[in-house]
Amino acid sequence: MDDGPGQGQERLRFTVLGPVRAWRGATPLAAGSPQQRALLAALLLRGGRTATASELVDALWGDEPPHAALAALRTYASRIRKALGADADTLVSESGGYALRPVDNHPLDLDMDHAEQYAADAEKAKASGDRCRARDLLDSALALWDGEPLANLAGPYAENQRTRLEEWRLSLMETRLELDLELGCHGEAVSELTALTAAHPMRERLRELLMLALYRSGRQAEALAVYADTRRLLADELGVDPCASLSDLQQRILRADTELDAPTMPPDAQDPGEPVFIRPQQLPATVADFTGRAAFVTELSEQLATAEGRVMAVSALTGIGGVGKTTLAVHVAHAAHTHFPDGQLYVDLQGAGHCPSDPEAVLGAFLRALGTPGSAIPDGIEERAALYRSALAGRRVLALLDNARDAAQVRPLLPGTDGCAALITSRVRMIDLAGAHLVDLDVMSPEEAFTLFTLIVGEERVNAEREASMDVVGACGFLPLAIRIAASRLAARRTWTVSVLARKLADERRRLDELRAGDLAVNSTFELGYKQLEPRQARAFRLLGLADGPDISLAAAAALLDMDPDDAEGLLESLVDTSLLESAAPGRYRFHDLVRLYARSCAERDEQPPEEREAALSRLLDFYLSTAAHMYALERPGDRLADHTETPNYPGLIFTDRSEALSWLFSETRCLIACALQNTGEKVLRRAVDLLLLTRDMAESGANNRQYEQANLTLLAAARRAGDQHAEGRAHWALSPIYTQSGRLNEADEHAKLATLLGLAAEDSFSASQGPNDRGIIASIQHRHEEAEGYLAQALLAFRENNNKQSEASALCNLSRLHLDTGRVESAVRLAEQGTACYREAGASRRLGNGMYALGMALTLANRLDEATAQLTEALAIFRDSRQRFWEGMTYLRLAEVDLAARRPAGAANYAEQALSALRGIGGGRWRASALTTLGHALNQIGHTGRAKVCWQEVTTIHEQMGLPVDGEVRNLIVPVAVA
Questions:
Q1: pLDDT tens across 773-805, in order?
Q2: Which residues pair with 959 in a beta bridge?
Q3: φ, ψ at 590 (rounded to 5°)
Q4: Within a 10 A sphere around the Cβ of 477, how many other Cβ atoms?
Q5: 864-868: which pairs have CB atoms within 8 A and are 24 or more residues apart?
Q6: What letter would DSSP give residue 477?
Q7: Contact call for residues 848 and 877 (beta carbons, < 8 A)
Q8: Which of 173, 389, 798, 854 would you call most buried, defined as having the most Cβ atoms within 10 angstroms of its Cβ?
Q9: Rounded to an integer, what distance in angstroms lies between the CA atom of residue 621 and that of residue 720?
Q10: In terms of pTM, does the model score above 0.90?
Q11: Which residue, 322, 346, 563, is CA-closest to 452?
C-alpha cells in the first residue's frame, strides 16, 4: 500500500456509495455528525474542485440555512481536519471555500472513482467484444455499492446526488443484465430481474429484459404476461402505452422470432471461469510416439475438414480391440482442432464392458462441459439431447465418442448441427448409423509396426538386434496394443535383450490367440503382459479386475488386496508402469475396460482356491460398509442405525470431520452403488442392503437418486429370491423416502408398510419403527391426518424405546408438520422446538437443519416471522454445507412463504425463483408445483398478475398429470390471460 503524505501513513480511503465513511488503511476515521458527513460528501463529489461557502451552505441546508451557517461550516471543516489527523492538509481553504485535494501526488481513494473506472473499462471491453470481462468489470463496480448512497444524509445536494448515483447504479445493472443475457445466463437472470421489476415497476427496460430472460428460459407465457402487466400498470398510473421497444419485443415473442434465441458466444469472448459457453478441450493427450496410419489419417482428416457447411460430418472407426482405434482417433482429432474452434468433447462409452455408459448421463456431462449449469440440465434422454443440440447450435465442435457399444448408444450424442462433427470408435461396424463415413481399421503394416516398436524401445537396442525385433513385432501380429505392451516392458527392463523377449514370444502356446481374428486377439496380447508379472503383481491384477465401478481408490484397492495402503500403492504403481493399469487421478486407479475383462478372466482361471475371489469382494464390501458406518455416525450423531447394521470384518476409513466424510461419500457414489449391485448373493446380501441404507444421504440430496433407487430394487428382488425377510424389509425402508421425495406417494406407502411388516417378522426393530414414521409422513401429505397421527405416535414410542435420538427428533418434527396441517399451531411450534432440541442434544449437524426447517414452518404460521426467518436462514446454510440440494430448494420455498406473510412480495418472488432453480430435476413435480404456487402469489402481489396466472396454470397442469387435486384457491385465481 502507498505511504501517506510525508510520514509513511497508509492511504486515505473514502466511500459515498453507501454511508459516507473514511479510513486510513484499515482503520476507520470518525466522520462525525450527519451535517459534517454531508460536508465531507459534498467536497468528495466535487472531484477536487473548490466549493464556495455559499455553495456549501446551499448544499447542506438549501433555502433555510441556520442563522450561523458560515460558523457551523467552519466548525465542520475544522472537525474534518482533526479527524484526518496527519492528512489534515488534504482539506484546503481557498477563495472563501473548501476543497479536498491529494497531497504529494497521492490521489484520493474514493469508491465512486473506482466504480467509474470499472464502468469505463467495461465499456471498452464490451466494445472490443470481450463480454465476459465486461460483465466481470460491471460486477466489480456494482459490488462497491453498500446500501443507499450517501445514506442518512439530509439536504438538497445529498438528495440530488443520491438520486443520480442510484440512477447510475440501475443503469449499470441494466447493462450487466444485458450482458448476462448475451452470455446465455437467462435462467439465472430471471430471479434478479423479478426482484428489480418489483422494486422499480415503472422502469420499462428492466421489464423488457425480464421478458427476454423468461422467453429464453422456455417460459413464453410468463414473458407475455409480463407485457400485459406492464401495459396495464402504465395505463393505470401514467395513462400511456408501453415504449416501442417493449411492444416490439412482445410481437417478436408472439411470432417466435428466432433472433430472440440465446446468442452464441464468439470464440474470443470465452472465459474459462464462467459457467456458460465454455470451450471444452476434453481430448486425451495424443501419444508422443504415434506413427504410421498415413492413409487413414488423410481419409479421416478430409472428412472432418468438410464439416463446415454440412449438416454434420460423422466418421465411424471400426476394428478389433487393441488395433489402435482410440490412438488414431485422438491423433486425428488433435490435428483437426483448427476446424473446430469452439472445442472438442470426449467420452469413453465403455461399450466393451458389462455396463456401457448411459447416453443420458453422457449428455449431462457434455452439457456441463459446454457451460450449462447443473440446475438447468433436465431429466430424460430426449430432453437432454434436445438441449445438447441447442447448445451446439451455431458452434463448431468435434465430439469424439470412443469405444461405443452400438449405433443406438451413439445416436443421442450426435451434434446434428451445421459445422459440428462426430468421430466414433467401436468394435461394431455401424452400418445402421445413417450418413456415417465408415472406416475399417486393420493391423499395422510390418514397416509401421517396426517403427512403433523402435520409437518405444530405442534405436540403439533395436538396431543391435534388428532380426529379433522383427520377430517380436511379427509375434505380436502387428497389433498396435500388443506391440506397445511388449515394447514398453522391454524398455522398462534394461537388463533384457530383444532376443529374450523374442524367445518368450516364440512359444506358440503363449501367442496363438494373438494371431486369431476378433476380440480374442486382444486377450492374447494382454496375456503376454500378464505372464511377465511378478506373483504379487499378477494377484493384484486379477483381484482388481473383479471390482465393478468406474475406478477404485487406493484405500479400497488395499482392502480388496488385503494389504497395507503404502505397500498397495507401490504395487499398483508398478502395474501402472506396465500399462496394464491406469492412474485416473492421484490415489485413484482404473482399468481400460478390455483390460478389466481380461483381468477378470484371469481371476476366474488362475485364482485358486475360488473362495479367494469371494473373499476379496467381501473385503471390499466390508471396507465400504465400515467407512459408510463411520461417515453416517459423524453425519447423524444419535442415530443408532450404524449400531444395528451387519458387522464388517474389515476396517474402513476414519474421518476427522464431516466435510471429509461427505467428500468421500459423494466422490465414491458410483463405486458404492456398483459394489452393492455386485453383492446380491445370500452370504453378502444383508451387508449390501445396509451399505445403501448408510449412504442414503447421497440419494436424499437429490443426486444419483435414480441409480440409488435401481440398486435398491435389485437388492429387493435378490432378498425376495433368497427369502431373507430382514434384507427385504430394509430394502423397502430405503425405497420409501425416495418415492416420497419424488411424489410417488402410494408406492412409497406400500414400501413403508412392507418395511414395517417384514421388520416385525424378522425382529428388526429399525425397519419396524422406521416404517410407521415414513407412513406418517406420507399420510400427512395425503391429508389422512388421523392415520398420520397414529403412525407417528407409534414411531415416536419405538424410537424412544430404542434410544434413537435422531429418529425421535425426526418424528417430533413430522408431528409438528401434522399439527400445522390440522390448525394446532401452538403445539406445532412446541413439537418442532422439542425436535430441534433433540437434534442439538444428539449433536446433530446436517439433521439439525431439518429441525430448524420444521421450526421455521411452524413459526411462520404462528406469525413469528423474524424468528422463522432466522431458523430457516440457518437451516439453509446447513443444507448448503451438507450438499443437500433438495432441502436447500425446500428451504428457499419456506423463506418465500415467510416473506409473503410479512408482505414482502419481491423478496418472496426472489426466494421462490431460487427454489425452482434448486429443485429443477429433483424431488418430482409436487414440489415444483408448490414453488410455482408461491411464486404466483408473490407476483400477483407486486402487480405481475398475468405472469402469476401463468404460474398457477402450470400448477394445475402438474397436479392433473400427477393425479393430485388442484387447490381450490389456485383454480379460482386462474382466468384466461389476455395478451395483446
A1: 999 999 998 889 999 999 999 989 988 888 888
A2: none
A3: -150, 155
A4: 21
A5: 864/829, 865/898, 865/901, 865/902, 868/894, 868/898
A6: T
A7: no
A8: 854
A9: 21
A10: no
A11: 322
